Amino acid sequence: MKELEYPFDAQYILKKRRALKRQLSEDGTERIKKRIAVLGGSTTDDIVSAAELFLLNNGIEPEFWQSEYNKYWEDGVFGNDELEEFAPDLVWVCTSQANLRLRSDPALTAEEAQQRLDAELSRFEQLWEKLKRFGCPIVQNNFDAPFYALMGSMDSWDIRGAGYAVNYLDLEFARHAQKGDILLLDLAGTAAEYGLERWHDRSYWYMYKYMCAREAVPSVAYKFSLIVKSLYGRNKKLLALDLDNTMWGGIVGDDGVDALEIGQETGTAQSYYEFQQYVKDLSKLGVVLTVCSKNEEENALAGLSHPEGAVRPEDFALIKANWEPKDRNLLETVQQLDLLPSAIVFADDNPAERAIVGRTIPEAAVPELDGERPESYIQTISRGGWFEPVAISADDLSRNEMYRRNAKRAELAANAGDYGEYLTSLEMKAEICGFRDIYLKRISQLTNKSNQFNLTTRRFTAEQMEGFMTSDSHITLYGKLTDNCGDNGVVSVVVGEIKDADTLEITLWLMSCRVLKREMELAMLDVLVRKAKARGIKKIVGVYLPTAKNKMVSRLYPDVFGFAEVGEGIFELDAESYEFKTKYIDITED
Amino acid sequence: MNEKEIYKRLTEVFRDVFDDDSITLTPQTTADDIDEWDSIEHINLIGAVEDEFGLRFKMGEVSGMKNVGEMVSIISARGRK
What we know:
The structure holds 2 protein chains of 2 kinds.
Chain A: H1 10-15, H2 17-25, E1 32-40, H3 45-57, E2 60-66, H4 72-78, H5 81-86, E3 90-94, H6 110-131, E4 138-141, H7 162-179, E5 183-185, H8 187-194, H9 196-199, H10 202-208, H11 217-231, E6 238-241, H12 252-255, H13 267-284, E7 288-294, H14 297-304, E8 318-322, H15 326-336, E9 344-347, H16 351-360, H17 377-384, H18 394-397, H19 399-415, H20 419-425, E10 428-433, H21 440-449, H22 462-470, E11 474-483, E12 486-500, E13 503-511, H23 520-534, E14 539-543, H24 556-560, E15 564-567, E16 570-574, E17 585-589
Parallel strand pairs in A: 1-2, 1-3, 3-4, 4-5, 6-7, 6-9, 7-8, 10-17, 13-14
Antiparallel strand pairs in A: 10-11, 11-12, 12-13, 14-16, 15-16
Chain B: H1 3-18, H2 39-53, H3 59-64, H4 68-78
Helix pairs in contact in B: 1-2, 1-4
């Protein structure tokens, strides 16, 4: 919904939230449900209402529980019957500088000043430690700058200053985020973006205990929703870029490569260069880059090879430069890369192209790039938050390369006469073992964002995955696949629960679509059966829970795996009589 | 700005905030007359009224306002748009 995308009208959202909620709830979207406990240091009702809208807009239906005003610490540390019963999927400690008891105090000694900082920090450390009982992610705000500075600039560096206290704690909180104790919500950045002068509204604090101006409330809620949607795999995955006047100034087909504005010569050229640099940096987050441009391919490639440019043609997984309608090109692009239309962010300076794509592919995001102001492109895409990560894995760094190889393999396969021959030529090697610590982050990331090749679409945090790993009653598997084109990383996850002595029920079975049609799923099944038999399992039960996105695996158990259908979406395999199926993959297992 | 116009715009604000097109305001309307007008919604309502008329209520005024009529007289004295 456009009203809930950056740049949004905060007044409108606050005023019309009931109507907006009604529209979202009635739009027929399938959403995942999440229970979110908000432990607030100020009035959080408005923040929660706005967050609900942004989350609904991102395919998440939240149920909230809020602590009483400023009872975040007591509820978190000592517990609260309601909260315990609520059993949150996520806790948000929504605090701000208003909750710090650290006024600038020139009368303190340096030791005393440090002691009060340590005490404040340990108050929060204690809170996070206690919140671990829920075994769920904790989102914690850092602190916005204070609303006045007793000592002026000195307030920010003198150990007795309130400004220094905020800087110090923000850095310490960041260290905890680095250790994985919390997911940090950058309230300091949010306040700065909004403008500190307008952010602090003292009358709303005194009257209603609002931590920020009412009009800034949607900005806080928005920041929160970006983290949550990222956590639950609702990020976009692909940035499809127009070229002329989007990636460089000018029309390459008309003006020629030499006349393009890109590089360091003029201000306009610099703004395009920085945009190219930004796009290239996004690919390091794992964003897949493609081109969608009305151009002769030869001209497009020449423009992308401009010696003053920051990108190269090989930075793109796929280049569609032709005269076909862009919506058709985009749909082909996602199909070729095994992605969904909802993964697309389409960047184009031309409002007419945007309007067509927005209408024909409503699930794609179409940020409003202002063609008159190329210097605004970076902010427009960045503030949209579509690719906001909560963690970056080694896989993300090389994702573009992987998608590019995928497109190449698809081309090879299309040309190969015999598919088996093609699979043999890939010289595939798989490592299929029980979960390991080093892969837990990637395992939960993959679990939370796989939608298509996913039998149950159950979502689990890294903490819960760790639980399965150490549990005696679970069999866990991750699968890593390498071939002669490179390493695909961890691409498949399976979790089974031993229900009684001889039955294993498959809780989770998913695979990244980037390795579809490689028979990796058969290799996973072979290893699962071997491990199950070693544990004395005789019967393996699989379930298929249909969603809007996982139709491709509706017949996986019976048709591909050879399970018997024993009920609606319930399948069984006799482990004893199972015939191993792997033909093309060399498996290493633990 | 005459009172009639203020009531017209104020009614729209109330209808938006409570998502209820049947709301009609009189000078005597109070929180008791609108089911969903609780203390939380009150803050949002005051904020939306401030946005609509380009004014800020003073801290004492918000708690002192007894009904819509009093709200309108503050708006007509200080509203800027």
